[in-house]
């Protein structure tokens, strides 16, 4: 009975993995096909002949996809830096610094997670317009470059798990609050910081609605908007659209390969806690 249960579990997991990976496989296979192959063969047929024409056309064509990748990458990196710095400072204050109203302020701040992001689009748009930043690079960065409630919550819970004895020992050696944070807390929190790095980069790399609303034209177009524009610009040429989708996946896959150990470790540590 035990082996049948094990086989059943792996079959279910394999089926779920197949449904999850199928769209990515379809995207990659289509990206390296010609239009004739895509129209005349099964969507899961192997490219024959194998061609990189779609990749070249996407990167060098009028859609300026290469520029969109650079704009998205720079915006995501700046948002990541701002969110990590602000979230670490706020989370440490909520976790280890005693001040009046700490718990109330934390839960009020955390309650903003209940607000749907789409509700904030119009107020943010008006703010960017009145500040003269609409259709600029900073309109992509500034609304998200500060602490996020989710990051603060995750870091706070992790910081609370760090032994107080380590912090007390550092204070006995003359370390101030900033020294404790930089020299003790942050090095011990690398797994959770790596996890937040992945989550932040992926969420803002895939952001679509806000960049679509706040920017116009190709100058500050991001990857998601550039990919969507290809569908209308080339009359539904799916080989080009899938080539753009495949290119957009490459940085995320590389990021995951770099941080996979820390990501898995953070899940393991959270499970033990």
Describe this structure in words.
With 273 residues, this protein is mainly alpha-helical. It has helices at 2-31, 35-40, 53-60, 65-96, 102-110, 121-130, 137-141, 149-160, 164-172, 177-188, 190-205, 209-214, 223-233, 238-272. The longest helix has 35 residues, at 238-272. Residues 69-259 form the ABC transmembrane type-1 domain. It is a multi-pass membrane protein. It is found in: Cell membrane.
What features would you highlight for this structure?
2 domains; mainly alpha; 74% helix; 14 helices; MetI-like fold; 273 residues; single chain
Do you know the CATH topology of the largest domain? MetI-like fold
**Major beta sheet summary:** none
Q: What is the CATH superfamily classification of the largest domain?
A: MetI-like
Mean pLDDT reading: 83
Instruction: Please write the CATH class name of the largest domain.
Output: Mainly Alpha
Radius of gyration: 23 Å
In the CATH classification, which architecture of the largest domain applies?
Orthogonal Bundle
Shape label: globular
Calculate the terminal CA-CA distance, rounded to whole Å. 32 Å
Question: Can I get a quick summary?
Answer:
This protein has about 270 residues and is mostly helical.
Please render the helix and strand layout as text:
Layout: H1 2-31, H2 35-40, H3 53-60, H4 65-96, H5 102-110, H6 121-130, H7 137-141, H8 149-160, H9 164-172, H10 177-188, H11 190-205, H12 209-214, H13 223-233, H14 238-272
Helix pairs in contact: 1-14, 3-14, 4-8, 4-11, 9-10, 11-14, 13-14
């Amino acid at each position: 009975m035990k082996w049948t249960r094990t086989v059943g579990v792996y079959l279910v997991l394999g089926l779920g993995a197949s449904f999850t990976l199928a769209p990515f496989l379809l995207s990659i296979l289509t990206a390296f096909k010609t239009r004739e192959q895509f129209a005349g063969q099964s969507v899961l047929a192997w490219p024959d002949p194998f061609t990189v024409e779609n990749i070249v056309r996407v990167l060098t064509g009028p859609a300026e996809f290469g520029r969109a990748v650079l704009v998205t990458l720079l915006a995501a990196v700046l948002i990541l830096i701002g969110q990590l710095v602000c979230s670490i400072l706020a989370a440490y204050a909520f976790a280890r610094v005693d001040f009046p109203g700490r718990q109330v302020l934390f839960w009020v701040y955390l309650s903003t997670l209940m607000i749907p992001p789409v509700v904030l689009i119009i107020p943010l748009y008006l703010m960017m317009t009145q500040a003269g930043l609409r259709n600029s690079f900073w309109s992509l960065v500034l609304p998200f470059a500060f602490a996020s409630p989710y990051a603060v919550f995750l870091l706070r819970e992790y910081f609370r798990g760090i032994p107080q004895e380590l912090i007390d020992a550092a204070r006995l050696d003359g370390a101030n609050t900033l020294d404790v944070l930089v020299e003790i807390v942050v090095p011990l929190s690398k797994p959770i910081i790596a996890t937040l790095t992945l989550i932040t980069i992926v969420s803002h790399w895939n952001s679509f609605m806000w960049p679509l609303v706040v920017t116009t034209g190709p100058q500050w177009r991001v990857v998601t908007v550039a990919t969507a524009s290809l569908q209308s610009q080339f009359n539904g040429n799916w080989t080009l659209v899938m080539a753009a989708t495949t290119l957009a996946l490459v940085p995320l896959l590389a990021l995951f390969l770099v941080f996979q150990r820390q990501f898995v470790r953070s899940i393991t540590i959270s499970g033990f806690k």
